[in-house]
């Protein structure tokens, strides 16, 4: 991985989709685009979408969506055509509208930048379309507005927007720069999986404080030399992952918290190179994740 590649944002946040935000305020936009044969629709169900060909998303015409979907305006493609998301409910038969669907976790690393960006946006928005139908203040139904990007409560009039929760994810290096500290979540133990340390930013907390707290809580070490490496929208459930590298001050104190993290290990470069190549007993995060990017970036120097 070259220095230029390290500084480039992950494909899923590269901004290849033109969001055309000003158009969201146009009355009747969704209806007009659904009547336009040039409009491209991405059908999603939970975090899944269908493929047209290996490594390419399947977009359909509005008339091809027969299931009772919820609609939103994603933006414009490179040719200027409108792009909509049709969000299917979890219990719908997706094959009727989109064919066999594949998860974002699988697709994120193999799609072209523009399609990866579109899919992440679609999944993030689609989940909110189905999960936030009622006002959190008074409990009345909140109707969709601004082409699917907001809701207006029919009772108290409060306006609601899709929620994004900031989270930090950190690759912790040894002081000599030759080893990387990774942790094993309790859910990954059977598969031998390890990853960078991550956690949500708490109320009133800055990113630097969140990094220090999470590493201390999960791995038992203090860190310094914090370096921001990039971000990634990650709809599990609705996160914005902010990636960092840091250096351990007291690396000999590394230990798991015993609850969320059951093991921590210092890995030499050769071990991680083998794991990224799919060799050996250690499993690392898939290439669609920023965790994978952080590990590969550290190896690249």
Name a few traits of the molecule.
alpha+beta; 6-stranded mixed beta sheet; 15 strands
Structure write-up:
With 301 residues, this protein is an alpha+beta fold. Helix content is 22%, strand content 30%. The chain contains seven helices and 15 strands. The chain has helices at residues 3-7, 29-34, 104-107, 113-131, 207-219, 269-276, 290-299; strands at 40-45, 48-53, 56-57, 70-76, 82-88, 101-103, 142-145, 150-153, 159-160, 165-173, 179-185, 197-200, 223-234, 239-248, 261-268. Strands 1, 2, 3, 4, 5 and 6 form a six-stranded mixed β-sheet that branches. Strands 10, 11, 12, 13, 14 and 15 form a six-stranded mixed β-sheet that branches. Helix 6 packs across helix 7. The protein is globular, with a radius of gyration of 21 Å. Mean pLDDT is 90; it is low at 1-15.
Would you identify the regions where 5 or more consecutive residues have pLDDT less than 50? 1-15
Distance between the amino and carboxyl termini? 9 Å
Task: Tell me the structural class.
Answer: alpha+beta
What is the ordering of alpha helices and beta strands? HHEEEEEEHHEEEEEEHEEEHH
Number of strands: 15
Given the C-alpha coordinates, what overall shape results? globular
Radius of gyration: 21 Å
Output the number of helix runs: 7
- What percent of the residues sit in helical stretches (DSSP H or I)? 10-25%
Main sheet specs: 6 strands, mixed
Strand content: 25-35%
Mean pLDDT: 90
């Amino acid at each position: 991985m070259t220095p230029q590649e390290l500084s480039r944002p992950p494909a899923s946040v590269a901004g290849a989709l033109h969001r055309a935000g000003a158009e969201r305020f146009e009355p009747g936009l969704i209806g007009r685009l659904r009547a336009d044969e040039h409009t491209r629709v991405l059908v999603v169900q939970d975090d899944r979408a269908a493929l047209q060909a290996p490594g390419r998303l399947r977009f359909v015409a509005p008339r091809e969506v027969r299931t009772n979907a919820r609609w939103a305006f994603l933006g414009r493609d490179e040719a200027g055509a409108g792009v909509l998301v049709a969000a299917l409910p979890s219990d719908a038969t997706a094959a009727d509208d989109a064919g066999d669907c594949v998860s974002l976790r699988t697709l994120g690393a193999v799609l072209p930048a523009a399609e990866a960006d579109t899919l992440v946006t679609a999944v993030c928005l689609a989940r909110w379309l189905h999960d936030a139908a009622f006002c959190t203040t008074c409990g009345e139904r909140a109707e969709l507005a601004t082409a699917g990007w907001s809701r207006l409560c029919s009772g108290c009039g409060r306006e609601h927007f899709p929620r994004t929760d900031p989270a930090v994810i950190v690759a912790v290096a040894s002081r000599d720069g030759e080893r990387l500290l990774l942790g094993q979540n309790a859910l990954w133990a059977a598969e031998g999986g390890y990853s960078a340390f991550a956690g949500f930013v708490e109320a009133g907390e800055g990113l630097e404080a969140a990094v220090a707290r999470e590493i201390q809580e999960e791995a038992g070490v203090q860190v310094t030399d914090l370096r921001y490496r990039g971000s990634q929208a990650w709809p599990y459930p609705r996160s914005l992952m902010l990636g960092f590298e840091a250096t351990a001050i007291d690396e000999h104190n590394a230990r798991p918290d015993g609850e969320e993290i059951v093991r921590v290990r210092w890995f030499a470069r050769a071990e991680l190179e083998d794991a990224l190549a799919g060799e050996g007993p250690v499993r690392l995060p898939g290439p669609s994740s920023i965790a994978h990017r952080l590990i590969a970036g550290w190896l690249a120097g």
